[in-house]
């Protein structure tokens, strides 16, 4: 085990404090990359004091018929992002292709 439950909870609180500080007076959009983000995003949202809007995106790179390295968006955003602060919440980053 790399991190135990308390270490993870502590880091989530630290991240939330940073977001609360950095986005005070603003309302960022949290975009969760499904499905791996759900638990982490929920824990993070409970610690936030700044107002946020939440949306989700789903991406797949392991489906039959996809070209290696190609990401297929299977669920797109519904919240307009133009002019908004956006925080992308990803559960697991293995290749980095989802966020590029």
Give me a quick take on this structure.
By secondary structure, this protein is an alpha/beta fold. Helix content is 28%, strand content 22%. The protein is built from 2 helices and 4 strands.
Properties at a glance:
alpha/beta, 4 strands, single chain, four-stranded mixed beta sheet, Rossmann fold, 100 residues
User: Judging by the overall fold, what is the CATH architecture?
Assistant: 3-Layer(aba) Sandwich
**So what's the CATH class?**
Alpha Beta
- What is the overall pLDDT average? 83
Number of strands: 4
Helix content: 25-40%
Which regions have little confidence, pLDDT < 50, spanning 5+ residues? none
Sheet with the most strands? Answer: 4 strands, mixed
Structural class by sheet pairing and helices: alpha/beta
Give the end-to-end Cα distance, rounded to a whole number of Å: 29 Å
CATH topology: Rossmann fold
Number of domain units: 1
Q: Based on CA inertia axes, which overall geometry fits?
A: flat
Radius of gyration, Cα only, in angstroms? Answer: 15 Å
Strand order of the largest sheet: 3-2-1-4
- Which H/E pattern describes the elements? HEHEEE
Question: What can you see in these coordinates?
Answer:
- 28% of the residues lie in helices and 22% in strands.
- It has 100 residues and is α/β, with parallel strands linked by helices.
- A 4-stranded mixed sheet has the order 3-2-1-4, with helices on one face.
- The longest helix is centred in the first third of the chain and has 18 residues, at 5-22.
- The two termini are 29 Å apart.
- The model has no long low-confidence stretch (mean pLDDT 83).
């Amino acid at each position: 085990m790399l991190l135990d439950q308390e270490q993870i909870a502590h880091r989530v609180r630290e991240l939330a404090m940073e977001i609360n500080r950095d986005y005070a007076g603003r309302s960022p959009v949290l975009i969760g990359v499904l499905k791996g983000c759900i638990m982490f995003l929920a824990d993070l949202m409970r610690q936030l004091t700044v107002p946020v809007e939440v949306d989700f995106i789903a991406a797949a790179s392991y489906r039959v018929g996809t070209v290696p390295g190609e990401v297929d968006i299977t669920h797109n955003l519904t919240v307009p992002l133009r002019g908004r602060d956006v925080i992308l919440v990803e559960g697991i980053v293995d290749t980095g292709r989802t966020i590029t």
